[in-house]
């Protein structure tokens, strides 16, 4: 017996998917449809260790889903065995605080939230609609990136803006990457053998997108992303925090439109804007070659992250654990070292040898006598989504 759950993560031009057995948590199949909307797209479908590749035009998400279903029919696993579908949904606004069963009414409500996440929610909704047509007989649930941060206190989520403007437009900090922060912070408790509710921790999710969270006794109390996933840390192509006056300045002095500025900050900034590369493997090579822009980019990245960690240590009044996760956090010992060594004054002591170990397992990279435990814990958003989906349907 197995309980296969299909997890879908629909972005603007891609759909990533996995089928996970909710009983033993094994990955049964996985795949990615890319370049939806272009003349030619691709789909990679992996099952039982074999990847099946197809090139095809996918004018929209609906067509991509149809072809994905064809690949399931040809190569397995049987979609008729799937018991539920979990959809990654970026923005739940203030309305959706937890994983929610998708109904027509719920979807209508979700559509109303699209202005809050114009880049993320419309493709997710298109994916949900197409998947409900393809698999009409099983429950579909939405798992929100924002849900874990619905516990933020008002002092942390309120922007110092005119109250009427904020209220009219739903402007506040929502936070994102919540599925990962929740999964990783619970793993930290498991790893340390401590009840989740009994200690304070900071989680750094450092991937292409990056965010940091402050968690007091198992409750998220602050995070670096805000109304949108643009705020906070320096990311692959996103600027993170800039002076809020920048928009007016670029509009008046640079003659840029709002769309130009949005594009600049989301797509052409971050590490890409600073040094022309987004991947830390390339950036590390550039630094090794003596590239000054790359060296400055890394310094800016570390400085921003360090500022947030210091701020969250203060918000929490001290911490027991600091954890790194996601692509950069899991695979880049030099960033971890740069951060932890500069926190020596706050009770962090790095174990250099442990930091250099490569592993897919949760591990401690601080010395045994370091007052704060520093950990690397691989994230697994799909597994977290499978657990959420299973809980929501049972
Ligand atoms: P996403 O936000 O797209 O899910 P990931 O969490 O997969 O991102 O992180 C991708 C990033 O992780 C890459 O752009 C790269 O900077 C970094 N990364 C991945 N593997 C390595 C590695 N072996 N060494 C250094 N950095 C790595």
Radius of gyration: 21 Å
Question: How does the overall form come out from the CA principal axes?
Answer: globular
Q: What's the domain count?
A: 2
CATH level-4 homologous superfamily of the largest domain: ATPase, nucleotide binding domain
Question: How would you describe what is shown here?
Answer:
- The chain has 15 helices and 14 strands.
- It is of the alpha/beta class and 394 residues long.
- The chain folds into two domains: 4-144, ATPase, nucleotide binding domain (Nucleotidyltransferase, domain 5, 2-Layer Sandwich); 193-381, Nucleotidyltransferase, domain 5, CATH 3.30.420.
- Strand 13 (363-364) and strand 14 form a beta hairpin.
- Helix 1 (61-75) crosses helix 3, helix 10 (280-288) crosses helix 11 and helix 11 (292-316) crosses helix 13.
- It is globular and about 55 Å long.
- Adenosine-5'-diphosphate binds next to helix 10 and helix 12.
- The site of adenosine-5'-diphosphate (ADP) has 13 residues, from helix 10 and helix 12.
Note the main attributes of this structure.
394 residues, alpha/beta, Nucleotidyltransferase, domain 5, 2 domains, eight-stranded mixed sheet, six-stranded mixed sheet, 15 helices, binds adenosine-5'-diphosphate
List the helices and strands and how they pair.
Layout: E1 4-10, E2 15-21, E3 27-34, E4 41-47, E5 50-56, H1 61-75, E6 84-89, E7 100-101, H2 104-112, H3 121-134, E8 140-144, H4 154-157, H5 163-169, H6 178-192, E9 200-206, E10 210-216, E11 219-223, H7 246-254, H8 258-267, H9 270-275, H10 280-288, H11 292-316, E12 321-325, H12 326-331, H13 333-342, H14 352-356, E13 363-364, E14 373-376, H15 381-393
Parallel strand pairs: 1-6, 6-8, 9-12, 12-14
Antiparallel strand pairs: 1-2, 2-3, 3-4, 4-5, 7-8, 9-10, 10-11, 13-14
Helix pairs in contact: 1-3, 10-11, 11-13
The structure holds adenosine-5'-diphosphate.
